[in-house]
Structure formats: structure tokens, C-alpha cells
Amino acid sequence: MRRIVAILLLTILAVGISLSLTKIPFGSSETKIGRHYIDKGVEETGAVNIVTSVVVNYRGFDTLGEVTVLFIAAIGLGVVLSTSRKKATREITPASLVLSTGCRVLFPLILVFGSYIFIHGHLTPGGGFQGGAIIASGFLLIYLGCRERRISRVASNLAESLGGLVFVIIGLLGLAFGGYFLLNFLPKGTANTLFSAGIVPIIYVAIGFKVGSELTGIIDNLIEES
Amino acid sequence: MIFVFFLIILMLTAAIAASVFRDLISAVIAAALVSLIASILFYFLQAPDVAMAEAAIGAALTAAIFIIAIRRTKRYEE
Questions:
Q1: Residues of A in contact with B52 (CB under 8 A)
Q2: Neighbours of A91 (CB within 10 A)
Q3: A144 contacts on B by Cβ (under 8 Å)
Q4: Chain B residues near residue A130 by CB distance under 8 angstroms
Q5: B4 interfaces chain A, CB cutoff of 8 Å
Q6: A141 to chain B nearest CA, in Å?
Q7: DSSP letter string over chain B?
Q8: Is B21 exposed, middle or buried (0-12, 13-18, 19+ CB in 10 A)?
Q9: Taking the mean position of all CA atoms in its chain, how far away is CA A117?
């Protein structure tokens, strides 16, 4: 009986979703705002990558909210795990020579790639979130391959706090100079060069540090506890 | 185009496998494969930034977090 009800409910849900999806005109520009971003985005923000100009410039306040959500999730995980913290240090069996050497060779390359992704966020696809996630996966490799190595909690917390502070301070400077939060008050420069787009690359570097250290902190918390 | 269909079929197979496997580590690997193929498909759909985020978070970090969690519980589903 329960199974029949479940199948019936799922069918109703599927029909509803497919009916509402057929009404959406995918691929045609019904809204004016999307066309505006594509036509005027480079000229207004200086960032060649339109996605970045939307994420950091036009919708910068939403991005601050996203970063805050990630921050709260990381803090929540830390609190939940710290209540059951016990000081039993497990015996760490070192990884094999091939694995640890491979990790040590790959780790700096992954760091450089992640930094490249978030420094060039306004020029090439990617940005702070992607670069931060790549850097965190590099630290995950170190945790798996060179098991005796640990990141410094102080340094990771410092990077995280500095990233958040830089984002908020840049936003407040915009408020002070031009009257609204996250105003692009720096000169935009010539498009398609590294030092262009005003505050966009600075904010993306801050987000990259913040996301990278937060995700690394999550992995560190989980591995220390298990 | 055939390559994309092949990827989609592989993705569906991996998704079914992830829900069927009794060995939870294998299920996590299959779920990571779903994420990896999703990121390749995002790249084909001209969304390289979403592809990057999906590959790093979906395939690497989520799988690692699941495996760490499985290490503290049981590996095989009853």
C-alpha cells in the first residue's frame, strides 16, 4: 500500500515538473537583463569573463552570502566534532615511498594550478570557489599520501579570517567612496589584462584563500576525528 | 555526439551501481564516477567553471568525506 502511494506521489511530482519545464523557453533571451550582461558587461566591469563579472560585481552581495553559508557549515562541523574529541593518538602507519614521493611532487603543482584559477578568475573560466576547491583537494592528497604531515591550524584560520575580512572591507570601502556596498571603486584598466576589472580580482583572491582554507579545515577536522 | 551518449549511459550505470552495491566504498567510488562524468558533460555544455567545481568538490572532496565517514562505521551494508 505504501509503495503504491509513493509511486503515485512520485508520478504526480514528475508530471508536474515536466509540465512546468516545457513552459520555459530555454535558449531564447526572454529577459532583458541577460542580454545587458552580455553586451555591456565587459565595458561596465572590465572583467572579460562574464560569469565572474556577474558573480563578483553585479551579484557580489549574494556571493558574500554564499561564502558566509560555507563558513557557517565549516564552523558547525567543527563544533559537532569537537564535542566528541578524544585525545587518543592513533598509530600512523607511513605510506609507501612511491605514494609519499608522488604526493610531494604533485602537491606544489596542484597549488600552483589552484592559484592560477583564482588569480585569473576575471580572464579565464573559474574563480575563487573553483580555485579554493582545487587547493583543498591538494591538501587532501597530502593528508592521504604523507600521513604524518598536518596543516597548521593557526595558519589556516588566519588565511580564512583574512579572506573574509578583505571581502567585507573592500565592500565597506565601496560604501565609503561611492555610496553602495561593493562598488567597483578601483580603476578598471584595459580589459583582458591581469591588472584589470578593479576590485574583482582582489575579491576573487580573497574568496580563493577563504574557500581553500575552509575546505581544508573540514578535511582536517574529519581526518583528525576518525 | 555518440561519445556524449556513451558518457550518459556510463553515468546512469554508475548511478544505479552506487545504489545497488552492498560494499559502501564501491558505492562511493561509483558516486564519484557520476560526478566526474557530470563534470565532463558540463564541459561539453560549455560551462567550464561549473565543470571545475564539480570535478574538485563532487569527485574528490565529497568522495573523501564519505570514505572517512565509512571508516568510522561499517563498510558493508546488511
A1: 117, 125-126, 130, 133-134
A2: 4
A3: 64
A4: 49, 52-53, 56
A5: no
A6: 10
A7: -HHHHHHHHHHHHHHHHHHH-SBHHHHHHHHHHHHHHHHHHHHHTT-HHHHHHIIIIIIIIHHHHHHHHHHHS-SB--
A8: middle
A9: 11
Give how far A216 is from chain B: nearest CA, Å. Answer: 10
Query: Can you tell me the distance from the alpha carbon of A206 to that of B49, in angstroms, rounded to the nearest whole number?
Result: 18
The yes/no answer to whether this complex scores an ipTM above 0.95 is no
Tell me whether residues B71 and A133 touch, CB distance under 8 A: no
Using alpha carbons, select from A162, A175, A153 the residue that is nearest to residue A203. Answer: A162
Q: What is the pLDDT along chain A (226 residues), one digit of tens a residue?
A: 889 999 999 999 999 999 988 887 777 766 778 788 888 878 787 788 888 888 888 888 898 898 899 889 988 888 888 776 665 566 677 778 888 888 889 999 999 999 998 888 888 888 888 999 999 999 998 888 887 777 888 888 888 889 888 888 888 888 888 777 877 777 777 777 778 777 888 888 999 999 999 989 888 888 877 6
- At residue B46, what is the residue type? Q
Alpha carbon of A127: minimum distance to chain B alpha carbons (Å): 8
Q: Whole-prediction pTM value?
A: 0.82
Q: Cβ-count burial of A13 within 10 angstroms (0-12 exposed, 13-18 middle, 19+ buried)?
A: exposed
B chain contacts of residue A127, beta-carbon cutoff 8 Å: 49
Residue A55, strand partner residues: none
Environment class of residue A114 by beta-carbon count within 10 Å: exposed (0-12), middle (13-18) or buried (19+)? Answer: buried
Query: What is the rounded (10 degree) CA torsion for A147, A148, A151, A154?
Result: 150
